[in-house]
Write a structure and sequence with these properties.
This protein has about 475 residues and is an alpha/beta fold. It has 2 domains: about 70-320, Aspartate Aminotransferase, domain 2 (3-Layer(aba) Sandwich), CATH 3.40.640.10; about 325-400 and about 445-480, Alpha-Beta Complex (Aspartate Aminotransferase, domain 1), CATH 3.90.1150. Helices cover about 35% and strands about 15% of the residues. It is built from 18 helices and 17 strands. It has a 7-stranded mixed sheet with strand order 2-10-9-8-7-3-4, sandwiched between helices. A 4-stranded antiparallel sheet has the order 13-14-17-16, with helices on one face. A two-stranded parallel ribbon has the order 1-15. The longest helix has 20 residues, at about 75-95. The two termini are about 40 Å apart.
């Protein structure tokens, strides 16, 4: 029988109901993984570039003329047209009404967060509310808030799954402390939290967006870890600011992110400076300027006009596959991984690993799984040993705290008193800091899955952990690595 699958791996006919062959997609778009003997398990760190996107990008760039878009020349107009198409593609992908939302292109999600932080109208009568589970790029917003006298509140995570403590969040949002504005007609502050944790993979409820707004808060949603494998519908949920990095979604290009902002919220921001491309008019001698009235006011200098059109191509590629299909694929693989980890034990029956966050079969979790390997004596195996051993076996994963200290502090049950004491101890090295915290390791091991992942990747990792650490008591001296794989 003739194979009617397209080059993307979807069978011809009704594309909405067609079965998707992720194994075929792996061979076609990511064949360099198996050709090089790679086991890639760091999709939360970076998605992988599909071959077709890279080749099409090269063909586009070398097949036409594109110039700096800040002009009306033919080369500039060609770039401007593709930039406008990319904005429209982003809005379509998130089901965002162009009358409500604007798309600002940034170097990454961190750049988008900085735009909000530096321009948000924090005052002594406002508050920054953050989940303890946040990437450091979100944690950094507190420095902007603190500099302007705003109060800062962290909402803890709780339970084995390390989910956001919703009772505490409700209490913080309804608090009337320290001269906060009433919230009626004026913002009481900003709530910033991740749709999905980059540490545990837990997915925090998007329902808190509307609840926070009802209490007078603007909401900043860090969607960088969420959107690669989940649908974010901005016609249903309406965060004021949403940040993403596109290389995490489809691997290519790097160096392009977006701030998707409600125009009403964007108008409340006050930029502390201006730059090339952000103004309509400026005088050096008279020392005045007029900022652009649209997204251009936030795109400093010349945007990455050769790469941003690849966002349109990437979104078309991922939409042909279907985000719902990607979600189901990754969810099944995550459950396979978590089930396999549950079965890993030393000969005496003691667990070989400790997983942080939701376990197998639990709802509202993504394809990010964080764990520590346990030696035969029950102690945590230093993550630096695992870094070296896994690399020697061709396995790419992530170790450390993943720029998320709050989730790590919760996972390791570190009390505030000990953290403050460690800060007072002025640690001069990582080892000294660990000693002050009474920790045997600097962090954990993160295994994260994506659309290019296959069951054999999971099996390779489970086999690596079993064969390398089962019934062993690895030490830290010399970071002794296992011989062979």
């Amino acid at each position: 029988m003739e194979d009617t699958r397209t080059t993307d791996g979807i069978r011809g006919g009704d594309r909405a109901d067609a079965a998707y062959d992720f194994a075929r997609l792996r061979d076609r778009e990511f064949g360099y993984l198996d050709a090089g003997g790679h086991t890639y398990l760091d999709h939360t760190g970076a998605g992988l570039p599909p071959r077709s996107l890279v080749t099409r990008s090269a063909k586009r760039i070398t097949g036409a003329l594109f110039g700096n878009p800040h002009s009306e020349s033919p080369a500039s107009r060609a770039s401007g047209l593709l930039l406008a198409e990319a904005r429209q593609a982003v809005l379509r992908h998130f089901h965002a009404d162009p009358a409500e939302y604007a798309v600002i292109f940034t170097p990454n999600a961190t750049g988008a967060l900085r735009l909000v932080g530096e321009a948000y109208p924090f005052t002594r009568r406002s508050r920054l509310v953050m989940s303890l589970d946040n990437h450091n790029s979100v944690n950094g917003l507190r420095e902007y808030a603190r500099a302007r006298g705003a109060s800062i509140a962290y909402v803890p995570v709780s339970g084995p799954a390390l989910r956001l403590d919703e009772q505490r969040l409700q209490a913080v949002l309804t608090a009337r402390g320290r001269g906060l504005l009433s919230g009626r007609g004026r913002s009481r502050g900003l709530l910033a939290y991740p749709a999905q944790s980059n540490f545990t993979g837990v997915q925090h409820s998007l329902e808190w967006i509307a609840r926070a707004q009802e209490h007078g808060y603007d909401v900043l949603l860090d969607a960088a870890a969420f959107v690669p494998t989940n649908t974010l519908d901005l016609s249903r949920f309406h965060p004021d600011f949403t940040v993403v990095s596109w290389y995490k979604v489809f691997g290519y290009p790097t160096g392009v992110g977006s701030l998707i902002a409600r125009k009403e919220a964007l108008a409340r921001l006050r930029r502390p400076w201006f730059s090339g491309g952000t103004i309509y008019a400026v005088s050096a001698q008279a020392q005045w300027h007029v900022l652009a009235s649209d997204e251009a006011a936030f795109e400093d200098g010349t945007v990455n006009f050769l790469s941003i059109p690849d966002v349109s191509a990437g979104l078309a590629w991922i939409d042909r596959i279907g985000v719902d299909r990607v979600h189901a694929h990754v969810a099944a693989l995550a459950d396979r991984l978590l089930t396999g980890l549950d079965r890993l034990h030393h000969s005496d029956g003691s667990p070989l690993v400790r997983v942080y966050g939701p376990g197998a079969g639990e709802p509202d979790r993504g394809g990010t799984v964080t764990l520590n390997v346990l030696g035969a004596d029950g102690r945590i195996v230093d993550e630096r040993i695992i870094t070296r051993d896994s690399a020697a076996c061709g396995i790419s994963l992530r170790t450390g705290c993943f720029c998320n200290p709050g989730a790590g502090e919760a996972a390791f049950a570190l009390p505030l008193s000990r953290l403050r004491a460690a800060a007072r101890g002025r640690p001069g090295s990582l080892e000294h800091y660990l000693e002050l915290l009474h920790l045997p390791s600097a962090g954990a091991v993160r295994v994260s899955l994506g659309l290019s992942s296959q069951p054999r990747d999971i099996d390779a990792f489970l086999r690596f952990v079993t064969e390398t650490y089962r019934d062993r008591v690895p030490g830290t001296a010399g970071l002794a690595a296992r011989e062979g794989c």
